[in-house]
Specification:
Helix content is about 70%, strand content about 0%. It has 6 helices and no strands.
């Protein structure tokens, strides 16, 4: 029997992997739509004043519906990633320290400017709390830094470059650079989650108090010829 903390951590990690994959796939679908139909659709909507009517509406209604569905998928999967990752991080911290509060995790992600550094610091804290084998620090720092820098780059592309890029003639302007950064960030994020989950599984205590399987050693078997201690022969 494994420790009661291990299955929740594994399930939380699996949720992160699934939601990250869904986010990248939905973003990829949006980028494909942008390149194949987005620019033409944006031009048509501009001609119609944003409110096509009659036959004009029938010509674009399918494309507008597809775009709306793709936007909802990207938004929904992004929210799912955030929920899954925060859930995993809270459980990972509590696997190291059962008294760890969830407040610092929420603050690290929600407070402006603090969230540019604090989440990576918290993840590194969890890594150090697993007491990893010696000699793995440099590899871990490289992985953590790669994930966080790719994440910050993606955020900068979406929140800074796209609004300022007047040459973006599509519906959202999202393209291959954003998709590439999102894919790299998702891959490295999954790698950090997998590494920490692996380390925590490796340090699960195998004691009776943690639910480990107890081994029962039977007493020596007596034979008819044997004489119990304390009885006359």
């Amino acid at each position: 029997m494994r420790d009661s903390q291990e299955p929740p951590i594994r399930r939380a990690a699996s949720a992160v992997y699934v939601t990250l994959a869904a986010q990248v796939l939905s973003l990829g679908a949006l980028v494909i739509f942008e390149h194949s139909r987005g620019r033409r659709l944006a031009a048509q909507l501009a001609e119609f004043g944003g409110r096509p009517q009659g036959a004009e509406a029938e010509a674009v209604v399918g494309a507008v519906t597809t775009f709306a569905v793709l936007m909802m998928l990207v938004t929904g999967t992004s929210i799912a990633v955030a929920v899954a990752y925060v859930t995993w991080l809270v459980r990972a911290r509590r696997a190291n320290d059962r008294s760890a509060a969830s407040g610092p995790v929420a603050a690290a992600w929600l407070i402006p400017f603090v969230n540019l550094v604090a989440p990576a610091v918290l993840v590194d804290e969890v890594w150090r709390g697993t007491r990893p084998p010696a000699g793995q620090r440099a590899r871990w720092i490289g992985l953590l830094a790669g994930w966080w820098l790719s994440w910050l780059t993606m955020v900068a592309l979406v929140t800074i470059r796209l609004p300022l890029d007047a040459s973006a003639a599509g519906l959202t302007g999202v393209g291959l650079p954003e998709l590439a950064c999102a894919s790299v960030a998702a891959l490295l994020c999954g790698a950090t989650v997998r590494e920490l989950t692996r380390l925590q599984r490796a340090r699960v205590p195998r004691s009776a108090g943690s639910g480990a399987v107890r081994t029962f050693t039977p007493p020596p078997r007596q034979t008819p010829d044997s004489t119990p201690v304390g009885h006359p022969g």
